[in-house]
Amino acid sequence: MKLANIKREWWKEAIVYQIYPRSFQDSNGDGVGDLRGIIQRLDYIASLGIQVVWLNPIYSSPNDDNGYDISDYRNIMSEFGTMADFEELLAGFHARGIKVVMDLVVNHTSSEHEWFKQSRSSRDNPYRDYYHWWPAEKGTPPRRWSYFDEEANAWRYDEQTDAYYLHYFARKQPDLNWENPKLRAEIYDMMHYWFKKGIDGFRMDVITFISKHTDWPDFGDENQGSIMIDRYAEGPRLHEYLHEMNREVLQHYDIMTVAEGPGTHTHNVLALVDEDRQELNMNYHFDHQGIGVGERFIINDDFQNLVKFKKVMSDWDKALSTKGWNTVYFGNHDFPRMVSRWGNDEPQWRELSSKLLTTYLLAMRGTPYYYMGDEIGMSNIKFDNIEDYKDLMTINWYHLTKEEGGDLEKFIESHKLCARDNARTPVQWDNSMHAGFTTGEPWIKVCPNYMQVNVAAQENVPNSVLNYFRKMTALRSNNLTLIYGSYQLLLPNHEQLYVFERQLDDETLLVALNFSSETASFEYDIKASSQLEVLIDNYNDLTLGESRIALKGWQAVVLRV
Ligand code: NOJ
Questions:
Q1: How many angstroms does the Cα of residue 550 sit away from the middle of ligand 1?
Q2: Which of 213, 295, 354, 450 could form a disulfide with 377 if both were Cys (CB 3.0 to 4.6 A apart)?
């Protein structure tokens, strides 16, 4: 790979750090994180060596789905603060050289959005066509599966106008009707509003779902979850809308865009992110998250299958190796803590495996999206009781399973590993009450390991998980091979080791990771290397033979070879 042939972009070279504001830092003692809390932590965020922050939704919302149900796109959620707080926060990030990406949630609104209130009020209201309605005189609408509905039914009957409205997510999250050009114009206008305030991009929530098959074909009653998701992402006008959005809004600013892409796979991703198509810059997929996880997040034996994981990640790299640009991530607010999902969160291995996962994310090709708290090795809280959960998805799935007479014990055990609330527990700042997150009662429980696992305890320990993250961000940011170099997987079938090379111009880097607690070694012609140098090693004691490299449990190294 030659640097001269690569189109360099700031968003390809950036490390994105995701903040879930509700759980980051509370400043006013109400138990809910807020914008002034983030302002208090700006220097900490800057110290991480990241270049972009993605903020989960901070707009006005009744919070049925923690801000993914927006009631006013141009205002700040009262629990989070005010527009003045937001402007101060944005200026604070920019002053530190950090760009800010916001969440764009335009597949649906809250049912408390003024558009929906108008829309549901009468069949001839001017806002009626802002949403999808099915008049009851036509009978029951064709079955559509819903992620969050109590009955998994995406059509909800509304008495007021004797019609059903569509909601792929919760009942209080009606889907917008993108067929309507007036609605699209309103959305583009709202996007201009935020860009004019100075934000640097959008992460686009379930953007692959915005175009519906409005002839409402029969998708089959039995189809749930993953099958429906693929159908939802095949809407006939998706690319037309995104191209239009690009023309009307995106192309006018120096910004980045990333699709949250349920239903994207290696065979269809280029339709979204091939630069010649002028739609979006990047996409993130769920193919690795789905390994070993079935419907309603019930896990199976493949949960940590490394061979499958390597294949998925390598296929995705290949799909975007000459056109488009990839993303890599483990954790976010919808998935478990990375160390509990892909590492080993037992006390003996938690730190080492967290460091290994950090090494992986920051050594892959593609923009890394790194989730708050992972930099200190936070792990899943693993609730024993359904009463502890706050997430409507887990709660509704639990009740559905119960009504069906399903295995509730298995459900609880699987959700200890997979539930979204595992990632939503407050960031652990220190060992004071509630981990320094709030002086009040936190909206969700703090993970009890905060006495050991917290920022303050790691800040001045050179070898801590936190300082390892900082070393790794510096390594990536100063090494174009880690950003742009080609990716070559070695040992695809090895069940413990993930080994790959990155190569740019005359530099080759070897990344070797032992995804297991047992020592493992592999053949590698070390003596052929002219410029051998260990760039990072989470043990600092790498064993190199002349033609073999041995890695201890969860050891991670990056070598210049
Ligand atoms: C994806 C978001 O990441 C998730 O948190 C949310 O519940 C759904 N989209 C619905 O907006």
A1: 42
A2: 354
- Please check the confidence at residue 223 and state whether its pLDDT lies above 70: no
What integer pLDDT is reported at residue 543 of this predicted model? Answer: 86
Render pLDDT for 64-112 as a digit per residue (tens, 0 to 9). Answer: 999 999 999 999 999 999 999 999 999 999 999 999 999 999 999 999 9
Task: Report pLDDT digits (tens) over 7-24.
Answer: 999 999 999 999 999 999
For residues 359 and 421, state if they share a domain.
yes
Q: Which domain holds residue 297?
A: 9-109+181-474
Residue 499 falls inside a structural domain: yes
pLDDT tens, residue by residue, 518-530: 999 999 998 888 7
C-alpha–C-alpha distance, residues 446 and 333, integer Å: 15
Q: Is residue 379 part of a domain?
A: yes
**Nearest CA owner, ligand 1 atom 5:** 334
Domain identity same for 21 and 92? yes
The CATH number of the domain where 527 resides is what?
2.60.40.1180
pTM surpassing 0.90? yes
What residues are annotated to the active site?
Answer: 205, 260
- 306 and 426, same structural domain? yes
Identify which of 132, 104, 110 has the alpha carbon closest to the alpha carbon of residue 260. Answer: 104
Q: How many independent structural domains does the chain possess? A: 3
* Ligand 1, pocket-test mutation among 171, 205, 422, most atoms within 8 A of CB: 205
Note whether 462 and 490 are same-domain residues: no
- Identify whether residues 466 and 363 lie together within a single domain: yes
